[in-house]
Amino acid sequence: MIVQKNFIIKEETFERELFGNFDENIKLIEEALKIDVILREGNIVLMGEEKNVNKALKLMTELHQSVSNGKNLDKQSISYSLSLLLEGNEDKLKELEDTIVLTQKGKAVQPKTLGQKEYINLIKNNDITFGVGPAGTGKTYLAVAMAVKAFKRDEVSRIILTRPAVEAGENLGFLPGDLKDKVDPYLRPLYDALFDMLGADKFNKYLERGLIEVAPLAFMRGRTLDNAFIILDEAQNTTREQMKMFLTRLGFGSKAVVTGDLTQTDLPDNKRSGLLHARDVLKGVEGIGSITLTERDVVRHALVQRIIVAYDKYDKKQEEIKNKRQEKNTKKK
Known about the structure:
The protein has 333 residues and is an alpha/beta fold. It folds into two domains: 2-96, K Homology domain, type 1 (Ribosomal Protein S8, Chain: A, domain 1, 2-Layer Sandwich), CATH 3.30.1370; 101-300, 3-Layer(aba) Sandwich (Rossmann fold). Helix content is 44%, strand content 17%. The protein has helices at residues 12-19, 24-33, 50-68, 75-86, 114-125, 139-152, 179-183, 188-198, 200-208, 240-247, 274-281, 302-332; strands at 2-8, 35-40, 43-49, 101-102, 108-109, 128-132, 158-163, 212-216, 228-232, 255-260, 288-292. A six-stranded parallel sheet has the order 8-7-9-10-6-11. Helix 1 packs across helix 3 (50-68), helix 2 runs parallel beside helix 4 and helix 10 crosses helix 11 (274-281). The model has no long low-confidence stretch (mean pLDDT 85). Its main location: cytoplasm.
C-alpha cells in the first residue's frame, strides 16, 4: 500500500545536511528504500510502500539527532546509516556520536562506523592496540585523534610518531637534511592529522619543545618511553625483530597504537610481517587489544570500498588456484 508521511524539519542545518550537494544524499535514500522524498513547505514528505516509509522515518529521526549533536552528513555516512537501517541496527547510530577531539576549525572528530567505535574503545581500555585494515578505514587518523586527546588532558606528556622506512633501507643516510627532513615524507599522513587537530603553529611549537617527537623505528632501540602516546604507523613493514623491539620500549604511563595494512607489505618475500606475527603471538595477552577493520569501515570515496572488495576476491581466487595446483602436484608424486 502506497502511503505518504511527513517529517518536520526543525533546523535549517538538517535540511542542508540531509539533501547534500545536488541532492546526492536524498538520491541514495530514495534508491535504497524505493521511496520518493520531497521537500514541501519546510517538511520532508516521504512517499512509497508503508514499510519503506516507516524505515525512512526511523532514519530521518536518527540522522536528525546526529546533526543536532554536530555530526556532518555525507554520502559515506548516509550509505552506512542505510546499511545499519536495513540490518535493523539503526539504533546503533547513537554509538557514533562521541566526539574524540575538535579540529583546529572546530569540527568534531568522531567515529563513522561501528568498527571505528570499537577501535577507539580498544585504545581507551588497553595499553597497546593493534589496528589492522585496508586504506581509508581511519586507522591512523583516529590514533592521532586519541593521542591529541590524551595529550590535551595531560594523560601523557608527549606524542611520539614512528614508522619503518623500508623504502629508504631503514638507513636514511643518503636523504638530504636533518633527521626530521629525512623522515618527513614517510610520516606525512600523521603530520596531516596533527595539523588538522592542532594547527601548524602549535604543531611546530610542540615539535621544537620535544613534546611531539618524530623518528624512524630504528631510532627506538635502547630507549624506554615513559608518559608517552606512541603511534607506530605502517607496521606491516616491520620485521619480527623490529616489532618485538618496539613493543618492549613501552614505559610507565604510556600507550601505544600499532597500525598497518597487511595487504600492502613492502618486505622481501622471505620476510614475515612483524605485525602479523605479533598479533598471533600476543593474542589474549592482558592489556593488548586488536581489531581488524574491513571495507565497511572505509570512509573515503565509495569507489575505494569497491576496489578493496575486488582485490580481496582476486587474492582469494589466486590462493584457491595455488592450492589446487599444489594438490595436483602432490597427487602426481
